[in-house]
Structures are given as structure tokens and as C-alpha cells.
């Protein structure tokens, strides 16, 4: 492998016809280059789409009430009903697979005129009554103060956490919102925190930047909702599919509210985990297609190298005959041809790999520096392990490309090779 004479022969053979060597190597170069670029682009698309989820809990599901579609236990179809506070305890007590449980209720008026007032300023905002667990399911980035806590819930405290656009509308530039008061439904609320959304692409209940959080129990009292719960956000414990929790929660709520087990319309639900898995399955398919196309392109280049090695063997038939006549073993001849093929394939492929990665880095730099990075395409990149796999494929392909010409070389009898006139 490290025989200097062998490497001199390899380089000499490749230099004899530089154009032929260059064109042959270009096929492999292009194959690995396209594979790397396609893989990087696919990863950029995946990064862009999955960034929409941000740090949203993907092992979550959501459940709300709708009208019944099946009469049951004396109740007519098309009946409306609501979740209640007792359902919160029932879910916790009867479904041990639940990790986080966040009941939610939305204040009225957000679809109409202004519903929040501070001094002479007012605005129409989404007002959510939440438990602290909500900030673990769909986290926000606090810019000042704190989020809601259990004491706020238990004490029905009149406190609020404001989105950044709420602050911009109700407060002057540079004014500190903390410990100031806003008025909702004629009730004054103390501002205990401000936030920016950690992600803006997964929304439940309106524009997050124009949202106000208040304690769930406080909103029930402020809007005279009694013990009504709007809907539930639930996450499953580690290792347990969200669908398990979802199915159990639906069955439990159906029993508690006299809903037919066959009624598929009465309880609305959404499973974030299923949607995330579908997305990941889609990208797995895209990556599989990229590998198929990329390896196909690479094999076309490898076949080109195999063909050119056959030509080289044909041109060197007499030389091979002389070496065989002088006692060269078949293994030496085979090693020479395969080494030459691997060398040409590896060099061309490595150059394609480096240029492909450099192109992806350049595109990423331009996207970031120009501000053109979108939610659909971010950080095109190739994993190091993928690059190593590509290089391994190159080496194996190079060996296979040289195998047929090598077997052809040793199959010729020395006497016939010496008589060959090319």
C-alpha cells in the first residue's frame, strides 16, 4: 500500500492522459457533490419546518368540548356541555400517565372592541386564564418579572403577564410595566411580568404577542364563568405516547359528561405528537429519496471509473504481461489496479465533499447575514457522521470499480499479453 514505486506508477498512469482522468474523476466529484448539497438542503428544510415547533412540547395533546352527535342516556343529540373544575382533579387522579395538565379559559371580548384599558390607552387583546404548567407546554421568553405561579391560582390574585405588543400599545417607550396596573372588565390587575413568544408559529388562542395571561381561577371569577373550563392541554410522561393519554382522557371525559362512547364529535382533540411524527416521517422519506438519487449519481461516476480502468488495463496489457513473466503475483497486479481506482475515486469524491460542504456553509452565512433566513429554510448542514458514511461509500465504490478491471488484468496469460499489440 505504501510502496513508493507503486504510487509512482499510479501517478504516471493518471498523468499520461490528463483530460481523460479529469473527465472520469468529474463523474465521481459531481455525484458526491450533489449528494452533499441535496442532503444539506433537505436538512435546511427540516430545520426550518421543525423550528416552527420551537420548544413547544411535542408530546402533548389538547381536548375541548363540542356538540354531541349521538343521543345518550336520555340526552338529545346536538347537546352542548362544558368541562369543569372537578374534571381537573379527575384527570390527575385517574390517568397516572399524565405529566403536565394545563386547563385554559379565554376571556370574552377579544374578537370585538377594546377590552383592556390603561389610563387613556386601550386595546383589544387575547386574554387567557392559565395554570403555571402552560408555560412548560408552550414556553414564553420572559423579558421582565415572572410568570404565573400556584399561589396566584390558589389566591385568585389579580395579576397579569403581558405580551410584548401589549406593552408597546399600553405603555410609553422606556416605561417600566412592572407593578403598574391595567383594567380588564372593570377590574384592576397588577403587571407582574412581560414576555416575548419563544415561537410564533404554533398558536393556540390568538397572536401570542398580543396576549395577556392571568391566573385561571381569577379569569373564571372576572368573567363570571363559574367553574367552567374551556379546554385542556396535556402532556404525557417520558416514554409514554401522547396518544395513550389522549385516548384515556377522552374516554374519562365522555363518561363524566354522559357522552356516548360512539360519539366522535362531542369531544374535539388534537395530538401534537402525531403531527410531529408525520413531519419526521416525511423528512425521513425525503432523506431516503435524496440518498437514492445521490448514490445513483455517484454510481454512474463509479461505473465511469471502472470503464476507464478497463481501458487503462487494455493499454497496459503488454506491461502486465512482462511483470507476470518476471514473477509478479496476481495479488500484486490486482492490488495495483484497485489502489489506482480507489485513489482516483477518493480524491475526486473528497474534493466534491469539501466543495459541497463549503457551498452549504456559504449559503448559511448569506442567509444569516442578509436576514433572509426564513421559517421554511434554516441552517443547511451535513452531519459529520453522514460525511463519514459518504467517504466510506466512496472507498468501497472505488474498490468495486477497480475489481472488474483487476480480474480482467490477471485473467490474461503472460504469453498472450506479451504478444498483444494494443
Number of strands: 14
- Output the number of helix runs: 13
- Overall tally of structural domains: 2
- Range of strand content: 15-25%
What is the N-to-C succession of helices and strands? Answer: HHEEHEEEEHEHEHEEEHEEHEHHHHH
Gyration radius (Cα, Å) is 34 Å
The description of the largest β-sheet is: 12 strands, mixed
> SS-based structural class?
alpha+beta
Q: What is the CA-CA span between the terminal residues?
A: 29 Å
Helical percent range? 40-55%
Overall residue-averaged pLDDT value: 82
Low-confidence stretches: none
Shape: elongated
Description of the structure:
It is a single chain. The protein has 422 residues and is of the alpha+beta class. It folds into two domains: 4-53 and 277-419, no CATH class; 60-271, no CATH class. Helix content is 53%, strand content 17%. The chain contains 13 helices and 14 strands. Helix 2 packs antiparallel against helix 9 (272-315) and helix 3 crosses helix 8 (242-256). The chain is elongated. The relative contact order is 0.18.
Give the helices and strands, then pairings:
Layout: H1 4-16, H2 18-50, E1 60-65, E2 83-84, H3 85-94, E3 98-106, E4 116-118, E5 121-123, E6 126-130, H4 134-137, E7 140-145, H5 150-154, E8 159-163, H6 164-170, E9 181-184, E10 187-197, E11 211-215, H7 216-222, E12 228-229, E13 231-236, H8 242-256, E14 267-271, H9 272-315, H10 317-325, H11 330-370, H12 384-411, H13 414-419
Parallel strand pairs: 6-11, 8-10
Antiparallel strand pairs: 1-13, 1-14, 2-12, 3-6, 3-13, 4-5, 4-9, 7-10, 8-11, 9-10
Amino acid at each position: 500500500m505504501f510502496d513508493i514505486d507503486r504510487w509512482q506508477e499510479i501517478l504516471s498512469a493518471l498523468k499520461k492522459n490528463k483530460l481523460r482522468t479529469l473527465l472520469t474523476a468529474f463523474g465521481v466529484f459531481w455525484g458526491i457533490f450533489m449528494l452533499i448539497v441535496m442532503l444539506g438542503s433537505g436538512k435546511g428544510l427540516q430545520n426550518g419546518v421543525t423550528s416552527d415547533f420551537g420548544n413547544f412540547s411535542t408530546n402533548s395533546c389538547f381536548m375541548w368540548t363540542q356538540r354531541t352527535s349521538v343521543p345518550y342516556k336520555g340526552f338529545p343529540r346536538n347537546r352542548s356541555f362544558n368541562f369543569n373544575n372537578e374534571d381537573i382533579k379527575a384527570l390527575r387522579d385517574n390517568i397516572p400517565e399524565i405529566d403536565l395538565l394545563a386547563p385554559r379559559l379565554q376571556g370574552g371580548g377579544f374578537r370585538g372592541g377594546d377590552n383592556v384599558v390603561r389610563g387613556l390607552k386601550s386595546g383589544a387583546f387575547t386574554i387567557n386564564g392559565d395554570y403555571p404548567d402552560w408555560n412548560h407546554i408552550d414556553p414564553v421568553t420572559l423579558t421582565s418579572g415572572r410568570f404565573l405561579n400556584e399561589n396566584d391560582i390558589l389566591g385568585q390574585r389579580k395579576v397579569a403577564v403581558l405580551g410584548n405588543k401589549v406593552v408597546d400599545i399600553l405603555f410609553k417607550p422606556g416605561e417600566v410595566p412592572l407593578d403598574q396596573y391595567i383594567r380588564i372588565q372593570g377590574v384592576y390587575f397588577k403587571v407582574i411580568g412581560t414576555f416575548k413568544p419563544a415561537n410564533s408559529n404554533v398558536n393556540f388562542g390568538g397572536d401570542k404577542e398580543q396576549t395577556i395571561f392571568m391566573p385561571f381561577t381569577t379569569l373564571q371569577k372576572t368573567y363570571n364563568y363559574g367553574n367552567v373550563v374551556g379546554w385542556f392541554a396535556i402532556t404525557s410522561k417520558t416514554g409514554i405516547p401522547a396518544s395513550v393519554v389522549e385516548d384515556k382522557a377522552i374516554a374519562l371525559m365522555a363518561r363524566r359528561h354522559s357522552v356516548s362512547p360512539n360519539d366522535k364529535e362531542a369531544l374535539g382533540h388534537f395530538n401534537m405528537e402525531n403531527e410531529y411524527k408525520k413531519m419526521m416521517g416525511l423528512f425521513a422519506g425525503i432523506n431516503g429519496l435524496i440518498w437514492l438519487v445521490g448514490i445513483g449519481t455517484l454510481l454512474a461516476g463509479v461505473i465511469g471509473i471502472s470503464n476507464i480502468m478497463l481501458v487503462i488495463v487494455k493499454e497496459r496489457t503488454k506491461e502486465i504481461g512482462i511483470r507476470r513473466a518476471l514473477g509478479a503475483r496476481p495479488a500484486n497486479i490486482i492490488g495495483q489496479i484497485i489502489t489506482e481506482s480507489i485513489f482516483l475515486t477518493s480524491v475526486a469524491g473528497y474534493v466534491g465533499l469539501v466543495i459541497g460542504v463549503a457551498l452549504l456553509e456559504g449559503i448559511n452565512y448569506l442567509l444569516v447575514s442578509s436576514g433572509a433566513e426564513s421559517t421554511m429554510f434554516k441552517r443547511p448542514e451535513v452531519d459529520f457522521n453522514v460525511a463519514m458514511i459518504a467517504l466510506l461509500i466512496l472507498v468501497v465504490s472505488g474498490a468495486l470499480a477497480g475489481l472488474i478491471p483487476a480480474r480482467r488484468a490477471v485473467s490474461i496469460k503472460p504469453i498472450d499479453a506479451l504478444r498483444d499489440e494494443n
